[in-house]
Design goal:
alpha+beta; homotetramer; 3-stranded antiparallel sheet
């Protein structure tokens, strides 16, 4: 699959809407509307709080009261509370910006579209492929319950999901992975969330490079999972590191949504739905927390 | 308008969907779907970045690279970037949780539903009315372009929007403020965003108590504006502080969406639309940044 | 021992020097100078870095580059690096301000000198007994190597050091604990620093209330230890929580220096020395990291 | 003056004492002791608090309560307070580590001793010349009250202090700048601290390159000032940026102490004293806040 050049268009402004990587310009088309039958809404976000699993290479989460009700007596009878929030963008339910992952070519890290990572980053963040470029994400969503398709509650630790696994799941669920869609993969690993964080972070089932190729050939818009990496973790030690991340994000502009909560949606056995996620447009950041939903 | 008791239901879990304050349980009903004509999507979020206006009583914003592409040579050829993000929840486009505002009654601050603020807060945040309770927000949206209704580009500094102003705008736009809707008020103050932050933060046009009563009588779900306070700022020095915040949030469970970007939507002159916002479920926090959209 | 009223003197200014709790006004007297024989300097600070032990009720440590050499090409040929530093004041080698600990009296928490904790704290920190009140600490220091006095490399987990233990150590070392001095207690627990953080944080040998009484009767200026709490941890479950902290800090104004590194000083078997620590004057904070030294 | 190669010695451990740049190994020698006459102690630190001046390229200061007395009812009758402290290392009274400044040579930034800045920095900080290398600073201090020597209360904005200015001040004060000493320059700019931060940060009097050469020829250990840069600010636009920083730190290993409070010391007209500063050993950081003292 050829990588596509992402044309830079100058600083993103409030209200701008455009494509990002392999994601189309958002539009709520009749085809998408036809996915809505009951109008029921499923929240696919894990609660964001201290104690959630995340990779130690990321900064720590902190949610702490700053001003408490009663601190400003001059405002009486009104009172105000607020807090300090330090978020590790890549812990909790989030979407990766394409600035998150690069690949060394000719000795230098490159981002999607052949952009030099070094020239795109300084202490203010990234000037290309940063989170301020995120459009609203409004797509057909397809849930692939790989665990259920294998008659399992949860996939084995570090299981590598192949193209054949996806094909078998499509057949069992009677769905087809299509172009411009959000593919959500359920492994069952949510059961380890905050219960066995080491397992959640370090032994996640996920796509191997074969599974990633399968999805890229279908030209999907993005891929999500109920795991921290979407990718099989650890990746195959015989091959290069992070093969799925580099293949999907850097080569194909297909980004990841990680640490989704999919169990209630899977229990409803509704495999096709309207998927909406609204990433925060944080200037120069490598991703954003999101609260994605499925409308069935 | 009587305040309603909000029944607490134990810790919110991933996937839980319920009402919050005056917001209904989310459902994409046929009535809401009928608002979608072209399917065009408007982004109503200001870009989140250093230099945006926010009230000094809130913690500072910080978006700073942490790991840069090339920092982990063992991962070659893959490279990874991430960052530290410290967000002032109440700066930038955001929605207030009901834990944000209280009112002193019998000498003690109370939140919506008569909950004691003191007993609901500790160093981990709020145990009631915190952001983890946010449902997806899926509502009929109504834009009230108060500035345009007065044939102005921007309302005067500190202008107090009355019920009569709203009524006149409804008439001019041929719309009616209805129950269970998101009402978005345009003052034109976005022109001062990052250009004249002092004016944006300290002299915002906004609802006065009369305008707030008008909206509460219509039993709306939430009210937003293209200003930092939604409320006229400063409020009337003759009356109690923060009269609109306390009346709407504490007495009526009608929350605020602040610092919206409404100019492109207003330019389209489409005053009724499908409004979607997906607040992050941050445990115990007093609000969340959002990237709200209007689908017309 | 009667508690002493600490007279508040208005906001501390740069350069102000005064007493703090039981610490005298600093002066390098001939008596103190007589402690200096070789002039050798011992650093008593543990390196401050991620991965150090600290109690989970404190915010996380973060030391992360912000600007890197090369980020500001306009400055060439000069280059600049800096960082973001988030410090948990009570992790790492530090001194407690008297604002750190209170005791409930008549239903309300009180600080040293009968000051109401509630009226002294708001979102800007403490208006009484905060770290900006710290004078330079210049005292006679006495090392009590309790472990060595018992012919041990390290005291048993959670061992409670009694007055009799201190008396026996004084005798063995041929020293006497005196008024206005800094008493540094060595337990040997530094061996667990970053090696067994759980043990360091949760099973520290330390003063029990009997040992604390012994030191307070000698009217010392402050007490330090090579442990996280100075106090036996956990404290005796039959008695009230934090008995040593409340007795020393709240009742006697005798503050704590925690997580000292004493092994090299102890190896030199020099038990009396000039002790210097220079706490940062952080407005309203409950303590400060320090780099204390012993000059022998 | 030739640059000296700083030999790296592996990770610094707690208790290690060694030299740093041009600073000698600390020892309280008889020569230093002879500087102590009255034993009086002067605090040379500005209070560290929100609202202090610092350069916008540095992260913001935050001192905010985290746990408040009463938050942990299980500890009653004991109560505990602590806070979140985010420190901009280069705002407030601080000492620069040699990792702070580099100079591009052969196209790459180099630190003191010819160390490659790029190879010495990653997301954990600096592996060379970081703050964990700081020894206790125990030196003869010499105050040069340049303002008073010119019969001024405060030097003119952006005044460049020359070697001749220093020579004249030495003569007037009857002192000599000597090898291995801490030279503290008083400009009078403390009067702008928190009163006119823009002036303090952006128009500071300070050393020009001629003055820096004069001090380096004397082979001093470090230079401090009551300004944010020590160096004349802005520097001469005809020459290279940051000429004094690069000459002193990178070429000579002579570090800076910035934003000192010198007014009370200057009022005492005691120009030679024992200078002590005890920098925190923060792994990989580019400096440390300090509370320096003069003992006269």
């Amino acid at each position: 699959m050829p990588s596509k050049k992402n044309q830079q268009r100058g600083p993103i402004q409030a209200g701008d809407i455009h494509s990002f990587g392999n994601m189309p310009i958002p539009k709520l088309t009749p085809e998408l509307l036809s996915l809505v039958r009951t109008g029921d809404v499923f929240s696919l976000e894990q609660i964001l709080e201290p104690g959630i699993p995340f990779w130690p290479g990321h900064p720590p989460v902190l949610i702490a009261p700053y001003m408490r009700h009663g601190d400003l007596p001059d405002l009486a009878p009104a009172t105000v509370g607020n807090e300090i929030v330090n978020l590790p963008i890549h812990g909790g339910t989030h979407i990766d910006a394409l600035a998150h992952i690069g690949k060394i070519k000719n000795g230098k890290p490159e981002l999607y579209g052949g952009i030099s990572a070094e020239s795109a980053m300084d202490n203010t963040g990234f000037t290309a492929h940063g989170a301020e470029n995120f459009p609203p994400v409004i797509l057909k969503g397809t849930l692939l319950d790989i665990a259920a398709a294998k008659n399992l509650d949860v996939l084995p630790d570090s299981y590598g999901i192949t193209g054949e696994d996806i094909r078998a799941c499509e057949k069992k669920q009677n769905v087809t992975v299509e172009k411009n869609t959000a593919v959500l993969i359920r492994t069952g690993f949510s059961r380890y969330w905050k219960v066995d964080n080491d397992r959640f972070s370090n032994k996640g089932a996920g796509l191997n490079i074969d599974g990633a190729h399968y999805l890229a050939e279908r030209n999907i818009a993005l891929v999500g999972a109920d795991t921290e990496a979407v990718e099989q973790w650890p990746f195959d030690p015989q091959g290069p590191p992070l093969p799925v991340h580099t293949f999907l994000l850097v080569e194909n502009g297909i980004t990841h949504v990680e640490s989704l909560y999919l169990d209630k949606l899977a229990a409803a056995k509704t495999y096709e739905f309207l998927f909406i996620a609204l990433p925060l447009r944080i200037r120069g950041a490598t991703g954003s927390h999101i609260h994605p939903i499925a409308i069935t």
